[in-house]
Amino acid sequence: xxxxxxxxxESLLTTPxxxxxxxxxxxxxxxxxxxxxxxxxxxxxxxxxxxxxxxDTSVALAGHxxxxxFIVRDFTEDGFVRLGRIGGSDKTVSRGQHVTVxxxxxxxxxxxxxxxxxIRDDDEEGVPDVAEQFVDVGATDRxxxxxxxxxxxxxxxxxxxxxxxxxxxAARGMDNRVGIWAAAEGLRRAAERGVDATVHAVSTVQxxxxxxxxxMVGFDLDPDAAVAADVTHATDSPDAxxxxxxxxxxxxxxxxxxxxxxxxxxxxxxxxxxxTAAVDVQLQATGIRTGTDADAFYTARGGIPSVNLGLPNxxxxxxxxxxxxxxxxxxxxxxxxxxxxADDAAPFSVDV
Length: 352
Hints:
The chain is α+β, with helices and mostly antiparallel strands.
């Protein structure tokens, strides 16, 4: 990954955008794709689409731009914030963390309280639900807290982006800033190749709360095929339960999902494109659902042939998600190669 692409990824990762509050991070994405797209547009909820205009065949390269987080639910009399969830926030990793409350007047720093080990009772080792946890912003009472934050303000973990050995990166929000990075880069690389098809790169909103943005965009765009780039579990770490193993490894290439929403013709198109682009891919079984925007795209407009392209990720929905940039670069090359073949591969339909 060259320096310009790395800077773009870092900008995405360091700009908060929990579901329902994605405008700032969407703006980073829009600014980047505006340099090479023929058209960039957003809808009323903030879904963003960048288009390379071409022939009648159209494909969408999509990721979701939102991340999980928390929300200010209520105040205590003594000046602490009571929390709610945004998306699938994990109660086991939140206590003892630095957080930022994103208010209309600017960021407010806080910490999620954790009773010191010295004074906890032995029977208090269980993890309380997020609704029972609290944030300390330093306020002394409810009135002072109400001057600092409002109910409905979103919270995210305070960002730390770390480079590990072998260039691997750790941060919160890899899910799914890496997907919209790959979609944008796939579009840029398709533009460099001069593809014949019309190609849309998409950054959707509110995936983490029900795939809502993809439902809007899928209906609006109605592409001939859609590829949803999203993180998938790399189960190559010591804590991954054997019964949940997928065989997916970090650094072994992007992951083509098979089954359920994943259209077999589009799956084969991705695999053929991978061979053409000399990109190693991994396969993953998704017999019931993908859990990604592909599940929304494929039922839109009477059926859009769709596939989930996975980006291997360790420790999903924690502040220390880990990815290998080589997988991201390969995913972008694969998306560009798929777009380049789309005009010849269409129509994407099963032979019955």
